[in-house]
Amino acid sequence: MVSVRLEPAQPHDAPLLANLLELYLHDLSEAFPIEPGADGRFGYERLPLYWTEPDRRFPLLIRSHERVVGFVFVTRGSPMSDDPDVWDIAEFFVLRRHRRDGVGRRAAFAVWDQFPGRWIVRVFDANRGAIPFWSRVIAEYAKGAFTLTERDRWRVFSFLSSTSPR
Q1: CA angle at residue 28 from 23 to 33, to 5 degrees?
Q2: Helix orientation angle between 103-114 and 130-141, rounded to the nearest 10 degrees
Q3: Distance of alpha carbon 94 from alpha carbon 149, whole angstroms
Q4: Which of 25, 97, 132, 137 could join 42 in a cystine, given CB atoms 3.0 to 4.6 angstroms apart?
């Protein structure tokens, strides 16, 4: 069984996250019209906010067998909801080598268990690889008790998580 643990990222983890974000944004460039800058890097200007807004933004490292294999950025509040207390997966990334072996599923379940309440997960329609993953994982976690709406070019999943034992 694959070992997965979430660890709160600290300010000293910012360079590690910046490097992982480059891989993540490169993957997303298939779905979004983003290009690297003149320095060859995509950059992620919101990264510092995860330490200056600690009540609203939660950066987490995903570890498998003690190695960092990805990250999850959770925010309180979502651009797809008027509820300021709804939880939102702002960014979610697992290194390609660790995809399809349960790391993403376990990480998502751990996030939802760690932050109980109402959740929004947004998936851009052009992000073809993410749609089946999130559809399957959310349906399993929520035991089918979720809503799926389409807004502009986004699929928006809404559901509740709790601290009840799984």
Answers
A1: 125
A2: 50
A3: 25
A4: 25
Under DSSP, the state recorded for 166 is -
Tens-place pLDDT, residues 97-154: 988 889 999 999 999 999 999 999 999 988 888 999 999 999 999 999 999 999 989 9
| Sign, Cα dihedral of 118, 10, 96, 39 | positive
CA 61, CA 73: separation in Å to the nearest integer? 9
- For the CA atoms of 27, 76, 62, 136, what is the dihedral angle to 10 degrees? -70
